[in-house]
Amino acid sequence: MPTTGQRQQQKQQQRLTRQQLFLLELLGKNVDQIEDVVKEEVTQNPLLDPTSLENDSSKDVPVQEDGERDYRDYLPSDHSADERPEPQIADATSLIDDLRQQLGFLDLDKRQQTICEEIIGSLDDSGYFTTDPAIIVNDLYSRGIATTLSDIESMLRVVQSLDPAGIAAHDAQECMLLQLRRMPQSSSEVATATTIVSRYYDLLMNGNERRIRQQMALDDEGDKVFALIRRLTLKPAGSDETAYVSPDFIISRQGNRLLVALARGNMPEINFDEDYIAHLNELNDTTKSLSRQQKEEMSFLNKQKSSADMLIDTLHQRQQTLLRVMNAIAEAQHDYLMSGNPSDKRPLMQKEIAQRTGYDPSTISRIVNSKYVQTDFGIIGLDKCFSTSYTTDSGDEVSAEAIKALIHDLVAHEDPRNPLTDEQIADQLNKQGFPIARRTIANYRKDLGIATRHLRRTH
Hints:
- 52% of the residues lie in helices and 6% in strands.
- It is mainly alpha-helical and 459 residues long.
- The protein folds into 3 domains: 1-76 and 83-91 and 244-387, no CATH class; 95-230, no CATH class; 389-456, Homeodomain-like (Arc Repressor Mutant, subunit A, Orthogonal Bundle).
- Helix 1 (4-27) packs across helix 13 and helix 3 (95-103) packs antiparallel against helix 4 (110-121).
């Protein structure tokens, strides 16, 4: 038979195990989900002060007619869940500013960048480029910059390669095609959708889906194809929803240093209700003289106290764990987080962060997934800080994102009448010291949403 000390040790280990599991659960939640957990506990636990939720009218705390809260009101906890807090805008800059910022990551000379900025400034409210190119040529000439219609066409293709997909299209048809060309070209649904938009555009716009199905002899695949087409936007800069997320971390630049902080947002504080705590202490001090109902109340409140203590302690552990991991990531990706340029991203795997912090790789994975970090260049997914590696001829390691940036730059500057093949892109990269196979080029091109040579050709 285990001794009393052994039983206490086993009980402590069981309690620690529960807390460890709870910590893992909380590590997997983002800042909005953590706020929901806190609000639920504050609302359902009578020992916690509900005043932090006074500004949230969607949650009511049980109140008796005399104004006092009764612990029995919490036993059948049957209250509706909170409304989610209004999220923050992922990037407060305007679309025009964002497009200009993206230009900074491309290898453009001053003249090319000026032409691109002129095109961007000419986009209408929906994100279309409907301005006569000759007007831009004349405007630039008046500023002492000589250009041709061919220059405008070439730089327009550069602007069309920026995000969001479909930007700077001449019309709705081209807008849809630009979006489809960003999708995996190996997909049969994408190929069929491209054919429909290219050849049956008028029927599509008139809602004559049945006739298109008949002429193309589409089977059950047609449902997926038309569902894909319906997801395409006709207003890349107009009425589409903005990406709304709440950042979990905030990284700011201070000289050449990166400062890391947790973003709490509207996270309510967890404070104990002093009156209820005093009442519980009184019950615990007078156990022998308590009635059956009072003992029941004492037992319930002690459980609620343990629940609140574990939540507070686990949230503190979560904060320390998140900060330690984010600091390790910031140290590993210092150059990228300073500049925002994907080509500055170094090869980084989650297992390296696990080694740096001493945490299990599964813990790192829980933290990275579904979390966002606010930087000086916008809000990005934490997973964007990681990248696979590639070895150059000189033995240096570069990230896959750096290779993709080179591919994007080559395609942006290719001759639209004679686009580069994957083999030609591979040859050019090989000359720069990156011996990459054609198959790898094809995979990276698909990841970038760049269409095949045939679909990129203009006549």
